[in-house]
Amino acid sequence: MIEDVFRAKVNRCLNLLQTSLKEISALSERPKIEANEYYRLRNQIREAKAAFDEVKKETRRLFGPPPAYAPRDFEKRREESLERLRLLVKSEEKEKIAEELFQDELIGRYFDLDEVKNFVEEQFESQKKGKRKLANFKARLFIEKIKRDLNHAETLINSLKSKVNFG
Asked: How many other CB atoms sit within 10 Å of the CB of residue 83?
């Protein structure tokens, strides 16, 4: 039913952001920056933002409410598919959730253990409220990381504007 498109899109977005942040950091050390370098980085961040929009669409499709026309067994089949793809968290305790999250290869690549533990500590209670489910913690972790990195990259690229040699 569901291919692992979600992980591919998350990986692409986080990879673009990680690369952009490293390059921005390197450029910020220099007194002057060529316009083509600035524009290339700015476009890379825009590409990451577009990739993030795709991640949000995919998240809504996978974890959001079922469409009105969906068959009765849609929720059950979707949950089975998400479990098969290892996108759901099975634990219900903070410590176990953090351990389970960190065992994911994609999370291990882009997060350190303290970052995951802090996120679980901060978001545990709010993830249980309303219509949110603890099982969807992994998707929330990815989205919050992408949001934070995207905002950071946009702030840094704007601060580089004064160093650009438009001449």
From this structure: 12
CA neighbor of 58 nearest in space, from 116, 115, 143: 143
Report the C-alpha gap between 162 and 166 in whole angstroms.
10
What is the model's pLDDT at position 127?
Answer: 86
Split at pLDDT 50, 70, 90, the class of 3 is low
pLDDT of residue 54: 97
Q: Three-state SS for 2?
A: coil
Grouping H, G, I as helix, E, B as strand and the rest as coil, residue 116 is: helix
> What tokens does 9 get?
């899109």
Higher pLDDT, 2 or 165: 165
Task: Count how many domains the chain has.
Answer: 1
What residue type is 74 in one-letter code? F
Domain that holds residue 94: 5-165
Do the Cβ atoms of 44 and 16 come closer than 8 Å? Answer: yes
Q: Model confidence over 106-117: pLDDT tens digits?
A: 999 999 999 999
**In whole angstroms, what is the distance from residue 128 CA to residue 11 CA?**
26
